[in-house]
Amino acid sequence: MQPRVSMITLGVADLERSKAFYRDGLGFPLMGEDPQVAFFTLNGTWLGLYGREALAEDATVSPEGGGFPGFALAHNVASEAEVDAVLAQAVAAGAELVKPGQKVFWGGYSGYFRDPDGFLWEVACNPFFWVGPPDTTAQG
């Protein structure tokens, strides 16, 4: 299997609210219109939004959940100033600031916000790797 994440789908409580948050608040490009699902084009992957109950039903699991889900999504940028700007943009769009941008133990700078459905996003500047898309032409 070739390692890749082709899509991240979030089960959301209110599709229109979440669509507005990602499209209007964060500026993610929406792919088409559908009343049941929303897809956003990201660099090298897609973000999908789908009703929480429907997504749980599709996966044949319970829609109940709470607290820390055990993962965070990450958005890496090129500078500390960009970390602060993205965090501010997310908060202005309706996110909750969980942790302001700050120097972190691993040598970078990061902060966290929680989207309207409680999903954690880390915004980070990591001086140890390049922020662009992966090089798919590399041999190895």
Helices and strands, with pairings:
Blueprint: E1 7-12, H1 15-25, E2 37-42, E3 45-51, H2 52-59, E4 73-77, H3 80-92, E5 96-103, E6 109-114, E7 120-125
Short description:
With 140 residues, the protein is α/β, with parallel strands linked by helices. It is built from 3 helices and 7 strands.
Plain-language structure description:
This protein is α/β, with parallel strands linked by helices and about 140 residues long. The chain folds into two domains: about 60 residues, 2,3-Dihydroxybiphenyl 1,2-Dioxygenase, domain 1 (Roll), CATH 3.10.180.10; about 60 residues, 2,3-Dihydroxybiphenyl 1,2-Dioxygenase, domain 1, CATH 3.10.180. It is built from three helices and seven strands; from the N terminus they run E-H-E-E-H-E-H-E-E-E. The strands form two sheets. It has a four-stranded mixed beta sheet with strand order 4-7-6-5, covered by helices on one side. Strand 5 and strand 6 form a beta hairpin. The longest helix has 13 residues. The protein is globular, with a radius of gyration of 16 Å. The two termini are about 15 Å apart. The C terminus is likely disordered.
